[in-house]
TrEMBL record:
Domain of life, per lineage: Bacteria
Cross-referenced InterPro entries: CO_DH_flav_C (IPR005107), CO_DH_flav_C_dom_sf (IPR036683), Diverse_Substr_Oxidored (IPR051312), FAD-bd_PCMH (IPR016166), FAD-bd_PCMH-like_sf (IPR036318), FAD-bd_PCMH_sub1 (IPR016167), FAD-bd_PCMH_sub2 (IPR016169), Mopterin_DH_FAD-bd (IPR002346)
Gene3D superfamilies to which the protein is assigned, alphabetical: 3.30.465.10, CO dehydrogenase flavoprotein, C-terminal domain, Uridine Diphospho-n-acetylenolpyruvylglucosamine Reductase, domain 2
Pfam family, one: FAD_binding_5
Name of the protein this chain belongs to: FAD binding domain-containing protein
Keywords for this protein: FAD, Flavoprotein, Oxidoreductase
Domain FAD-binding PCMH-type: 1-166
UniProt organism field: Tropicibacter oceani
Keyword Phosphoprotein annotated: no
């Protein structure tokens, strides 16, 4: 590591001001940023901690929408998102207890790791990502591997999840990291069926439109018989080939539909 200034604002306004400094970077749970700093892959001169801003924490439900503060930890989501059981279950299976008690939903979505779990929940739910300046639909938010619609210095303050009629998340874990080798979040609600896949593609989280079309007329695993995801643009590494990941997309989608049904 190297020397840097750590700023701990107690309000969102102070955090925005601090992030206006040259080479300043937001620090939420630090589960990705701290290892990145240790490997000297990033070198901000100022880290702006969001962990002391109470307005960015908490969970509430109103009008069929679950709103989660950006600095809310995975453990808090697992314990407090009972109105959306599939989301609570997803949060409770991220990493290990140390990760769940430090990592935050806002940090995960801002980082947009291609194998993270929350991006599939947000995209699969048709969620809205709220920042200090605007609201962004999940369909517009995710823009590729580690890429989002966030502007420089923009902070994820909350995420709004419409609570669907049915939902489930199924993850095939990479056992060492517990990241998703392939994870699929399926929902059925007023807006139709959504199927979001994480861990599989070089382009990051994506919606499997062919599966959505098949499930819209028949929400059962059998509707996916004969349907397969394309291996084009799938990740291929020591953990699995592109073809293997494409196969897992179909398997995990069927499991998610069965669990949700």
């Amino acid at each position: 590591m190297y020397s840097f200034e750590l700023v701990r604002p107690s309000s969102l306004a102070d955090a925005v001001t601090a992030l206006g400094q040259d080479e300043a970077q937001a620090l939420s749970g630090g589960q990705t940023l701290i290892p990145t700093l240790k490997q000297r892959l990033a070198s901000p001169s100022v880290l702006v901690s969001l962990s002391g801003i109470d307005a960015l924490k908490g969970i509430s439900e109103a009008g069929g929408v679950l709103t989660i503060g950006g600095a809310t930890t995975h453990a808090a989501v697992a314990a407090g998102a009972g109105a959306y059981p599939a989301l609570a279950a997803l949060a409770g299976n991220i990493g290990d207890p140390a990760v769940r008690n430090r990592g935050t939903i806002g940090g995960s979505l801002a980082n947009n790791d291609p194998s993270a779990c929350y991006p599939s929940a947000a995209l699969g739910s048709g969620a809205t990502i709220v920042t200090n300046t605007r609201e962004i639909a999940a369909d517009d938010y995710f823009q590729g591997m580690f890429a989002t619609a966030l502007d420089e210095g923009e902070i994820v303050t909350a995420v709004k999840f419409p609570i669907p009629e049915k939902a489930a998340y199924m993850k095939f874990e990479q056992p060492a990291s517990r990241f998703a080798l392939v994870g699929v979040f399926v929902t059925k609600g007023a807006g139709g069926v959504r199927v979001a896949v994480t861990g599989a593609s070089n382009n990051g989280v994506f919606r499997w439109s062919e599966a959505e079309a098949a499930l819209s007329s028949n929400f059962s695993a059998s509707a996916l018989d004969g349907l397969s995801a394309s291996a084009e643009d799938m990740i291929s590494d020591l953990h699995g080939t592109a073809a293997y990941r494409a196969h897992l997309v179909g398997v995990m989608t069927k499991r998610a539909v069965t669990a949700a049904g």
